[in-house]
Amino acid sequence: MRKQALSGILGVLAAFAIGALVLALQGFNPVATYGALLQYSLFSGSGFTATVTRAVPLILTGLSASIAFASGPVNLGQPGQLVMGALGATLVGLFVHLPSAFLVPLCILASLLGGALWSGLAALLKRAFAMDEFIVTLMLNFIADYFALWVITYPLFDPSASTPMTRPISTAAWLPDLGSVNTSVLFMVLAAVVCWLIMSRGRSGYEWRMTGQNSLFARIGGCKVNANYVRVMLVTGALAGLAGGLMIMGGPHRFVKGLGANYAWDGIMIAVVASNGISGTFLYGLLFSALQQGAIGMELVTAVPSEFIDVLQAVIVLVVVAGRVSLNMVFDRLATRRKLKESAG
Amino acid sequence: MARDVLIDLQHITKVFPPDTVALSDVSVSFESGEIHALVGENGAGKSTLMKVFYGLERRDAGDIFFKGAKVEFRTPREAISAGIGMVHQEILLIPEYTVWQNIVLGAEPVRAFGTIDAHKAREAVRQRIEEFQFNLDPDALVGDISVAARQKVEILKLLYRNVSVLVLDEPTAVLTPQEIPQLFAELARLRDKGHTIIFISHRLDEVLTLSDRVTVMRHGKIVGTSAASGLTKEDLARQMVGREVLFTSRRQPQEPGEIVFRARELNCNDTEHRARLRDATVEVRAGEIVGVAGVEGNGQFELVNAIMGLASMTSGTLDVMGKDITHADILTRRTLIAFVPQDRGKMGASVAASILEDAIMTHHVLDPRFRTWRGLGLDYRHAAEFVDQIREQFTVSMGHSSDPFRSLSGGNQQKVILGRELLLETPFVLMDQPTRGLDVGSIEYVHQLLLNLRSRKRAVLLVSADLDELFMVADRIVVMCQGEVVVDLATDATSREEVGYYMLGGKEAAHAETGS
Fold it and tell me: Which UniProt keywords apply (chain A) (predicted)?
């Protein structure tokens, strides 16, 4: 755990150094660029709140991927599950009229169910026809995308808009701002805590992890691996769905064309960088969110294009993932040398 | 007998990261034209020493001399070109290629323009086969020939490259008892032609039969080198383990109790609808160990899977303590059956997990003390205490319970699995090859555990490929052949020969003739 934190920190620092080199070679001032990046993501009030809000879908889809990958199912359907979750929340927000105290939880529930429905479909196909969730969840992403596009272009189209989008959802379903931070952040943190409890302290999490590592061992040990598979798919789908729901309820308050965009794919990338750890996913989610948020400000005040952040993210992924292995080798070599000295002395 | 020293290893030290000392100041020399056995328990450092010599592992200190000159092989290729070849435990050949193609691969004779001179290559291989009397067809596909023959191909591959020193890492591990004498005759012939053979093994009988000199290793150190002619099996075992080892049964006479486990007329097919179990019937009583013998692949695996609920049966019934478990799910079976599978890494544990995570499997659902938060949570504090209990009761030598399972030695991994299963305190215990791949000390420990279970009135079904083991601990031996339980013999009233006869397909009628 401590080793992983160290290799993560070193990896990120090394990635920033490589990024600085790239900037310098292009004739930009790395110090000014990174300064602007930090200024607009962390060290200004509005920048910070925007970073934290942006982190909501990143972390939730990241947790979804982390839990799935650690437990065995290769659920790559976060983009589609996010869309379906958003659609669920939108439907409830448009057509159910209740006071806020009831409508908000109902919308949240609808988003969880929307995501779980989509991943559950993949789980069903796996259980009934042995179709690999790896390919099914990927394909379902396209279906979710075009289905949502159809919904917002025809049945729920807002006639006053020029591009496909729904009417705004009932204001009772809007998530209020708490000071300057949107309450969607609270739901995300709550979800992350629950995920951590399930995986690190829960009986299910133990069984899921063991199944992910060696399903035959888990099965002969008495774990219900088939039921667990379905549960993992439902939970991870629900997490991605929640990301979509919170985006609607906290953000534009309506389903707009292109909602979600790349958040879910970034979430999968974050899970990989965090090697499927819950706390790692949370921290890397914040980091990537800060980079993406800071990129906008960086482009404003320096001449560096925001695409530089894509480069930086890619470098971080490569350096951290590769560094984890090589740093372990360095640790091993140090321990070896210590042992040699001991046995010589 | 004064031979020249051919290979001299001086003060070799090797540490496996992070802190496992595999070899500690090891010095040993091999003479030209001898068969030199390197023996020791698993993890004693035999293979590591040879891998260091062969350029497969880096060493942290020490020097290597070959033919009097200091050498440094950085890769096996360099070692081979110096005349040293090693045959590994796993056979690495291309099944779709013929014997001669496999042998010349990487050193093919070529014509102008780099095309392979197939005729010349095949002829060269044929000559080698004849010269060493290896009894191989150079045109056979490697995928079609037996494991023993594949091993010969591996050896020929090196001889084709003109090595004069052969290092064999546990060559008999993959062979059946009938195939071993032939290999030994071939190795002796090679020695007589002037080759030097270094032979890694932990089977003591073989070592004494084959080798001229024996070097014993223990815990990464050399215990000593001596001529094989003056040694006994007990001497070697004592040197290897560091104390006396008993090779005879300590089974006390004991009346078995009630029938605990009953499998009746089990039938089971494989995916191609071939019968793998035919009306297999086995009973085990309390306080009794029943051994299942048989040539591998005669239904033992299917029997175990049927008992555990991993394979579906076409007919038959299973019950434990009078409870019908024929159609029970695995968890229900686990309340009655402790199970030690044959493959630790596949079924026995997750090697990527921590010791703690592997140790609490099954207990985490069956034992209410592991539950917190109304069954939703897992009590990791209790789990840590449980690991301590296993560590103490089963003398596991291990670091912290959060260390990875793979950091344990094979023997200690098996102890953790045994501890986990036996602490389930079930009336019936099923063990599938529980000593496979373990060292002498650990095997002795497992046998003692089995006998303890017996005296505590547990019913034990022990599947084993090792007849010595069955004769040492089992009360009865049932023999499986082609999916059938062909005979049920009382251990004290039978012999290895009789069991072997049934294993190879002998029938009851002949049994009456030979008499027992």
Answer: Cell membrane, Membrane, Transmembrane, Transmembrane helix
Give the CATH number of domain A51-302; options: 3.40.50, 2.30.29, 1.10.357, 1.10.3470. 1.10.3470
A193 Cα to chain B: minimum distance (Å): 14
Nearest CA-CA partner of A246 in A49, A55, A33: A55
Distance CA B302, CA B284 (A): 18
Report ipTM for this prediction.
Answer: 0.89
Contact B482, B505 (CB under 8 A): yes
Burial of B83 from C-beta contacts in 10 A (0-12 / 13-18 / 19+): middle
Q: Which residue has the higher pLDDT, A68 or A322?
A: A68
Give alpha helix (H) positions in chain A: 2-25, 30-41, 45-71, 78-95, 100-129, 133-153, 184-196, 203-213, 215-220, 225-250, 263-273, 278-301, 307-344
Query: Is residue A144 a contact partner of residue A115, using CB atoms and an 8 Å limit?
Result: no
> Rounded to the nearest 10 degrees, how much is the dihedral formed by the CA atoms of B432, B435, B436, B439?
170
> Tell me, what DSSP letter sits at residue B360?
S
> Quick check: A217 and A210 in contact, CB under 8 A?
yes
Tell me: the pLDDT tens digits for B265-298?
999 987 777 788 999 999 999 999 999 998 777 8
Q: Is B400 exposed, middle or buried (0-12, 13-18, 19+ CB in 10 A)?
A: exposed
- Of all residues in chain B, the one with the smallest CA distance to A222 is B331
CB neighbours of residue B184 within 10 Å: 18
CB-CB contact of A334 with A21 (8 Å): no
The CB density around residue B76, as the number of other CB atoms within 10 Å, is 16
| Contact pairs from chain A to chain B, CB under 8 Å | 99
DSSP single-letter state for residue B94: -
Task: Quickly tell me which residue has 């090394």 as its tokens.
Answer: A14
Q: What is the C-alpha separation between B211 and B228, in angstroms, rounded?
A: 6
pLDDT tens-digit profile of B343-366? 888 899 999 999 999 999 999 999
Query: Measured between alpha carbons, how far is B156 from B102 in angstroms, rounded to an integer?
Result: 10
Which pLDDT band holds residue A288 (cuts at 50, 70, 90)? very high
Residue among B13, B19, B348 whose CB faces A217 most closely: B348
The pair of structure tokens assigned to B108 is 């093919």
CATH class name, domain B5-241:
alpha beta
Q: CB–CB of A344/B20 below 8 Å? A: no
CATH 3.40.50.300 location in chain B: 5-241, 247-336+426-516
Mean pLDDT to the nearest integer, A66-70: 97
Q: How far is B357 from chain A (nearest CA, A)?
A: 8
Domain spans of chain A, in order of start:
1-28+306-345, 51-302
Tokens of B214: 């024996």
Structure tokens at B125: 């291989």
pLDDT in tens, B172-181: 776 766 678 8
Q: What is the CATH number of domain B247-336+426-516?
A: 3.40.50.300
Cross-chain residue pair B18–A339, CB shorter than 8 Å: yes
Residues of A with CB below 8 A from B380's CB?
201
When pLDDT is cut at 50, 70 and 90, the band that residue A255 belongs to is: very high
Contacts of B308 in chain A (CB under 8 A): 220
Contacts of A219 in chain B (CB under 8 A): 310, 330
Task: Kindly state the tokens that stand for A325.
Answer: 């292995």
Quote the CA–CA distance of B358 and B308 in Å, as a whole number: 19
Residue of A204, A210, A217 with shortest CB distance to B347: A217
